[in-house]
Amino acid sequence: MRRAIEGCAKIDLTTPTVFEHPYFKKVDIIMSSLCIEVVSTSESHYSQIIGKLKKYLRPKGYMYLIGVLGQTFYMVEEQRLPCFQVT
Which of 62, 77, 71 is CA-nearest to residue 35? Predict the structure, then answer.
């Protein structure tokens, strides 16, 4: 499997282009773990972000989204930070 992985890309979900550098190659897999909920402010905003990411998927590509259902906040040390509640 390692031979099949060409690389990992840093992204910023708050920007229109998502990728830090211009990236035009479509990918087979996009994986997000507890990221989209943190930057989303509503269900429509969440869907918008998914739509931006989908543009970079090849046909029949996969998007793996890892999150916690029903979570409204997360903790970093003693600080309580909000996140969008996915149901």
Answer: 71
- pLDDT 10s digits, 50-73: 998 998 899 999 999 998 888 999
Residue that the structure tokens 């990728």 belong to: 19
In tens, the pLDDT along 36-48 reads 999 998 999 999 9
Instruction: Check: CB of residue 84 under 8 Å from CB of residue 37.
Output: yes
Q: pTM, whole model, 2 decimals?
A: 0.80
CA atoms within 13 A on the CB side of 52: 17
Q: For strands 27-33 and 57-66, give the pairing.
A: parallel
